[in-house]
């Protein structure tokens, strides 16, 4: 189960706008490492929509350090990031460690002070968890995406089902423990 746990995000949100920045800050997380395609914008889109841009600005005003980490090529990432004025790493080869370590260096933070937000379990979440980075799975903006990504969506759906099952079991165990404790007293 250890391998599977690397696929289990710390939080699941419907989209980046639903990320609870206050909770992150309260937990000592001051850096956001953000995937681009299908997390911040539709795959291939030149910029995020207005709401997402406002969210990014609010996060920075709140004090968060932000950088982009993408497996897309240099030209795509440079065009996207320069429009936002954010530092970015292209060709990151997530889930490999190298890109994540580079992002941490860029932010000047330890793994425990950063959060990865992305739409793929096998790249964004797995890579982050391997290094002890808090991982938020943001559901993909659209299901229309490149074929190689579409191939990963079925095993991803299975892993998410398992995750839901495990979370449910943990909740029940906690509830039973609570009841048992009350009965003992
Ligand atoms: Mg993505």
Describe this structure in words.
This protein is of the alpha/beta class and 185 residues long. The chain has one domain: Rossmann fold. The chain has seven helices and six strands; from the N terminus they run H-E-H-E-H-E-H-E-H-E-H-E-H. The protein has a six-stranded parallel sheet, sandwiched between helices. Helix 3 (50-62) links the parallel strand 2 and strand 3 (65-69). The termini are far apart. Residues 181-185 have low confidence and may be disordered. The structure holds magnesium ion. Magnesium ion (MG) is lined by residues 35, 37-39, 118-120.
Task: Please provide a brief summary of the model.
The chain has seven helices and six strands, in the order αβαβαβαβαβαβα. With 185 residues, it is an alpha/beta fold.
Keywords:
Rossmann fold, disordered C terminus, alpha/beta, 185 residues, 6 strands, globular, six-stranded parallel β-sheet, binds magnesium ion
Set down the secondary structure blueprint.
Blueprint: H1 2-5, E1 11-13, H2 21-26, E2 31-34, H3 50-62, E3 65-69, H4 74-84, E4 88-89, H5 97-107, E5 114-118, H6 121-130, E6 134-138, H7 147-184
Parallel strand pairs: 1-6, 2-3, 2-5, 3-4, 5-6
């Amino acid at each position: 189960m250890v391998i599977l746990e690397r696929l289990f995000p710390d939080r699941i949100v419907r989209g980046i706008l639903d990320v609870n920045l206050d909770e992150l800050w309260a937990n000592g997380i001051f850096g956001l490492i953000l995937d681009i395609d299908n997390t911040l914008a539709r795959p291939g889109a030149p910029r995020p929509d207005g709401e997402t841009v406002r969210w990014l600005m609010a996060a920075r005003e709140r004090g968060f350090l932000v950088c982009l980490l993408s497996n897309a090529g240099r030209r795509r990432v440079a065009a996207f990031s320069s429009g936002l004025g954010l530092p970015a790493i292209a060709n990151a080869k997530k889930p490999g460690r190298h890109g994540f370590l580079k992002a941490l260096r860029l932010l000047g933070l330890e793994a425990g002070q950063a959060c990865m937000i992305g739409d793929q379990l096998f790249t964004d979440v797995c890579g982050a968890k391997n290094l002890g980075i808090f991982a938020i799975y943001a559901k993909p903006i659209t299901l229309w995406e490149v074929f190689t990504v579409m191939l990963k969506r079925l095993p991803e759906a299975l892993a998410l089902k398992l995750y839901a099952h495990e979370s449910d079991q943990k909740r029940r165990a906690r509830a039973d423990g609570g009841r048992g404790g009350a009965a003992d007293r």
